[in-house]
Hints:
Distance between the termini: 13 Å
Number of helices: 14
Number of domains: 1
Strand content: under 5%
Order of helices and strands: HHHHHHHHHHHHHH
Shape: globular
Structural class: mainly alpha
Amino acid sequence: MKDQKVSFLPLLFLFIQPIFMTGNIAVARGAAGLVPPVSLAFWRWVLAALILLPFIFPSLKKQWKDILVEFPKLLILGLTGFAFCGAFPYISGLTTSVVNMGIIYSASPIFIILFSVFIYKEKLSKIQIFGTVLCLSGIMVVVCKGQLETLMKLQITKGDIWISGAMISWAVYSVFLMNWKSKFDLLTRFGLMAIAGVICLLPMYYVEETFFFTTSFNKDFVFWTVIAAIFPGIIAFLMYSKLQKFVGASITGLVVYLMPIYSALYGYFLFNEKLQSFHWFGGLFVLTGIILANKNLFKIK
């Protein structure tokens, strides 16, 4: 009889990936007023693509026919996961609160589950559904600071609409990424999606530069673009793609529930914000919910 080993790697990825993903919120806060939102998204992915190019060029040269075959799907993934999810949160941050953004973006796993169930017939057990609800409850505790009155007073702004678009776009990207098979390895596919994202962002960047904001290519621009390209860019997206292979699209989507928790930690260490008791209670609900919802975390290998 073969020895059975329990893999904790998916569990580890599930909690580490949001650290890098949530870094985008810190970037949005820090870069606001210093770098135009679409410009930051555009140059972030330009830089990421340039960093990856030396590593993926041999594959691109060898598989150029596959690029032509998969280009429509790459373009859709680049549009949803890189262009919309790159620019919309930065635009949203100009006019809405962090509380609103946290609540709205945390709803993306619900849409991931819905898309997975209705489009690809992915099955979910009752305990998984309960875990998802528990995660959402934990987020509500955090974003409304333990007071229902705070939640009830939220008002819809233009920023809320932008972040709603990003939330739905991320859900679409996540489901398609998992279900659309590719002949490219993980790194090459990511690089191609980044390039597709740049292509999709180019018209938006032109409109912003022409009618709204002009980018100043100064030290602030360089600093925030590099940070955005590497941490919530290359590292976060590669880990997200890898995590989907471990546990599937629906469960991987639960990492979004950890974003407000890690955001509170970023606020404490980077912006001198205090951690309150509701952060800890909310975090406990979120972590428990993820464990309950993810039937694959402790799968036998």
